[in-house]
Design brief:
The longest helix is centred in the C-terminal third of the chain and has 24 residues. Strand 2 and strand 3 form a beta hairpin. It is built from 5 helices and 3 strands, in the order ααβααββα. By secondary structure, it is of the alpha+beta class. The N and C termini lie far apart (37 Å). It is elongated. It has a single domain, classed as Orthogonal Bundle (Arc Repressor Mutant, subunit A), CATH 1.10.10.
Length: 121
């Protein structure tokens, strides 16, 4: 039953939100995939848990768009891992995404107010 509860409490990301979150994470510096997942998990208070099946297709999509670049590097544990970094075009996209996200948050907050404006409830 604990697994079912855990699944029920998961937050599904709106389409495009993962791309914005990845770009934001890469603003803090180049990262490999595992580092991106850990940063999102930690910064969200363990709420956002991105699976590799979602992460890598998103990273590849961002790379095709020219918003992220990547290169193979040695990790501290002496393993090869692909490191991703945000490009100047990715920084522009992040600014645009953030602005749209802020509008969305404000619109949802307005709809979710306890009572409609002018209502008796």
């Amino acid at each position: 039953m604990a697994k079912k509860e855990s699944y029920k409490n998961r937050i599904e990301l709106l389409q495009g939100t993962l791309d914005m979150l990845i770009l934001q994470t890469l603003q803090w510096g180049p990262q490999h995939g595992y580092g991106i997942v850990q940063a999102l998990r930690t910064r969200s208070g363990e709420v956002l848990q991105v699976e590799t099946g979602s992460l890598y297709p998103a990273l590849h999509r961002l790379e095709r768009q020219g918003w992220v670049s990547s290169e193979w590097r040695q990790t501290e544990s002496n393993q090869r891992a692909r490191s991703y970094q945000i490009t100047p075009a990715g920084k522009e996209q992040l600014l645009s995404d953030h602005s749209r996200w802020q509008q969305m948050v404000e619109a949802i907050a307005a709809v979710m107010q306890v009572s409609p404006a002018g209502g008796d409830e």
